[in-house]
Write a structure and sequence with these properties.
By secondary structure, the chain is of the alpha/beta class. The chain is 41% helix and 20% strand. The protein has helices at residues 37-43, 85-96, 102-118, 137-148, 163-180, 197-210, 223-232, 236-242, 260-269, 277-282, 290-295, 311-325, 332-352, 383-389, 417-434; strands at residues 2-11, 18-27, 30-36, 48-51, 56-59, 61-66, 121-126, 151-153, 187-191, 214-218, 251-254, 272-275, 299-302, 367-370, 396-401, 404-408, 411-412. The structure holds zinc ion (ZN).
């Protein structure tokens, strides 16, 4: 079936720039033409029409690091007053993840993915933990993603914090899921400070056999380099590089506590550093010197760490944080818009083995129709400023992933949100009793 979307200001993210009064023709799961709307309407008179009412049409957004399993922490009174990053893990996240059983894994994923779609996010990279329900947990998330039609790259976080059996079960879940090839996947590891040399070596051997790359947290809090120095005499990135974990295709989250040599190690190994500004500020762990690391050749992507499903808010937070922190008012917007609109999609096009994040023939038909009518002239050059100062998730009206309409006129398609909310609240209540 052919579907013609427009007319609107089509922000192509290609050399074509912004096509005003433009249209996008979608056939199956791909884009087949992007041009002036009237031209496409004449060429394809039989195509089904989707009216964009003259507003901005842009590629779907991507989230390079999140934790869907964290959703049921929302509103729970943990009774905690953590004074450090380690205490945040111990008093909140490691109590929550142990309480998740099959239904909770599935429903937290479904609710979290629905939130992403509402924000125009069509591709996510998740990092999952549910130590009481490991085997099969990634299929529960894949089922939820399939139901909603969102693209998801999954992994299970291996850690030694639940003993040798827990670590072995985590490795087995990654192997099982990577072999099934149901969705793109990475080999998940928690963080250097909860992984022994033996577990790192086992993960490396197993991932090598499967040709997989890793997804791991790196130097998020000061505990990680302290542990690496005490136990291996090296800083965290040295330890992980020597263990063979840092490689092209590996995603490392945060990198807040890295020194100059470690930045060079990231650049040399080709691993991608994901930046989660809300999480770093909320957890009060400091912030990574992203702009400096980009200058040093480190590949950077933007994620959310589960703090929000909203990548436009994440762009605003990142740009504002780094302008403020580097006392350089001009530093942030262009750099982080570039990361969100070009580097995230380029990285994830490799992971998903198809062009995403660009509106051009043969690219995946992942796009957003907004309600945003620019009040000032909009060009490819100033589009980042319309994103930073103008477009918010409230403007996202319709979302298409792989040619399938996932959100239509602000409503999720194929999902009874009231019924889901009732079911999720019931299961969240059970989880809260377990914590
Ligand atoms: Zn994380």
């Amino acid at each position: 079936m052919k579907r013609l979307i427009g007319p609107g200001a089509v922000a192509t993210m290609t050399a074509s720039g912004v096509i005003h009064s433009g249209g996008v023709l979608v056939e199956g799961d791909r884009i087949t033409a992007v041009a002036a709307y009237d031209e496409l309407a004449e060429l394809y008179p039989d195509a089904e029409r989707l009216d964009a009412r003259g507003a901005v049409i842009m590629p779907g957004l991507t989230n390079a690091h999140t934790h869907l399993y964290g959703l049921f922490a929302r509103g729970f009174a943990f009774g905690a007053s953590p004074a450090s990053f380690r205490q945040i893990l111990e008093q909140v996240w490691w109590r929550l993840d142990k309480a998740l059983a099959r239904e909770a894994v599935h429903l937290s994923a479904l609710c979290g993915l629905a939130d992403h779609l509402r924000c125009g996010v069509t591709t996510i990279v998740d990092h999952h933990a549910s130590p009481s329900y490991i085997e099969g947990s990634l299929d529960e998330i894949a089922d939820a993603a399939e139901h909603l039609g969102i693209r998801a790259c999954l992994c299970y976080e291996v850690t030694d914090r639940n003993g040798p059996a827990g670590a072995a079960a985590g490795i087995a879940e990654n192997v099982r899921y990577l072999k099934a090839r149901r969705t793109p996947a990475l080999f998940g590891l928690h963080a250097s400070f909860t992984l022994s040399d033996e577990t790192l070596a086992a993960a490396r051997r197993t991932a090598d056999d499967l040709g997989a790359s890793f997804h791991i947290h790196l130097a998020e809090g000061p505990e990680d380099p302290a542990h690496a120095l005490i136990h291996s005499g090296q800083r965290t990135a040295h330890r992980l590089a020597k263990a063979g974990i840092l490689r092209p295709g590996t995603f490392v989250g945060h990198g807040v506590h890295l020194d100059e040599e470690e930045a060079a190690i990231l650049a040399y190994t080709g691993a991608t550093l994901t930046h989660q500004p809300h999480s770093n500020m909320g957890n009060a762990v400091g912030f990574p010197r992203i702009l400096h690391m980009r200058e040093r050749g480190v590949k950077v992507a933007l994620g959310t760490d589960g703090y929000t499903p909203d990548m436009l808010e994440t762009l605003r937070a990142a740009a504002t944080l780094h302008s403020h922190a580097t006392v350089t008012p001009s530093a942030g917007v262009g750099e982080f818009a570039n990361v969100l609109l070009k580097e995230n999609p380029s990285l994830l096009s490799t992971v998903f083995q198809q062009p995403i994040g660009r509106l051009e023939p043969n690219a995946a038909a992942d796009l957003i129709i907004t309600d945003y009518h620019p009040p000032t002239p909009m060009t490819a050059d100033n589009f980042p400023f319309h994103l930073y100062f103008g477009i918010s998730s409230a403007h996202i009206r319709t979302v298409i992933v792989g040619g399938r309409i996932a959100v239509l006129d602000h409503r999720l398609v194929g999902l009874d949100e009231e019924a889901l909310s009732r079911q999720a609240q019931h299961v969240a209540g059970q989880v809260w009793k377990q914590i």
